[in-house]
Amino acid sequence: SGSRYSHAALDHLVGRCAAGLAALGFGPGAVLLMVAPNAPEWAIAALAALAAGGAVSAAEPDRSAAELASQLRDTGARFVFTTPALLATVRIAGAAIGSAGPVQFIVLGEADASVSFTTLLACADAEPQPAAGIDSLALWLLSPGTARHEPGQPQTHRAVMRRLGQIERAEPLGAGDVTLSLRPMSQFEGFVRDTLCALAQGAAVVTLPSLNPTLVRQTIARHGITRCSAAARSSGSP
């Protein structure tokens, strides 16, 4: 996308986005469904939802409206982060569960009957300080082998912190490292291992919205990538 953020800017924007979410009524018990390709703003919105005391679920951008509606029902999500290109499909999914309550759309851009991501960041309210317990729900992300109609495995804040510690000990990074993940952030490993763990150790994270091989090669060369993560193939796969 061309957007670049320092660690300090990331921290500031997460706080602003959390305040914006809280102003919309998002807080403990709420779930934000992420339906968007990998981007720095994906991480900002997801971290903001956690900072506001809520939880994060995610779906791959190519999900159908019926699959998204099923995930909205299963997770109870009434807030959705998406892009203008995916908004029409997400709206159909939201309309399909209309009887369960209205869905608030947050768009990385501008669109009618939605809240822009820029508007959230412009919120002047104080950052919320929810008293969410460490055993409250944090992430509801996909894992390898999860069926498309399933929402993924719920993970508490405690489980996420434990996993971050395990990864940091096994795969240490430093402030000079620049990482590139070829896994979608909608997957637990793509968000926790490849994004949160790298940021927590002071490394830089480069995101790509798609896995065009030429773009991947160019990105590795342009940004001086020191670690590239990808999903392991199962036995017998080409």
What does this structure look like?
The chain is 40% helix and 16% strand. The protein has 238 residues and is an alpha/beta fold. The protein has a seven-stranded mixed β-sheet, with helices on both faces. A three-stranded parallel β-sheet has the order 9-8-10, with helices on both faces. Helix 3 (65-75) packs across helix 4. The protein is globular, with a radius of gyration of 17 Å. Residues 234-238 have low confidence and may be disordered.
Uncertain runs are: 234-238
Strand order, largest beta sheet: 5-4-3-1-2-6-7
Structural class: alpha/beta
- Considering DSSP H and I runs of 4 or more, what fraction of the residues is helical? 40-55%
Measured on Cα atoms, how large is the radius of gyration? Answer: 17 Å
What is the residue-averaged pLDDT?
Answer: 91
Task: Let me know the number of strands.
Answer: 10
List SSEs in N-to-C order: HEHEHEHEEHEEHEHEHE
Strand content: 15-25%
Q: How many individual helices?
A: 8
Rounded to the nearest angstrom, the distance between the terminal CA atoms is: 31 Å
Instruction: Give a quick account of the main beta sheet: strands, pairing sense, barrel closure.
Output: 7 strands, mixed
Q: Estimate the global geometry from the Cα principal axes.
A: globular
Features:
16% strand, alpha/beta, three-stranded parallel β-sheet, seven-stranded mixed β-sheet, 238 residues, globular, 8 helices, disordered C terminus, single chain
Short description:
Helices cover 40% and strands 16% of the residues.
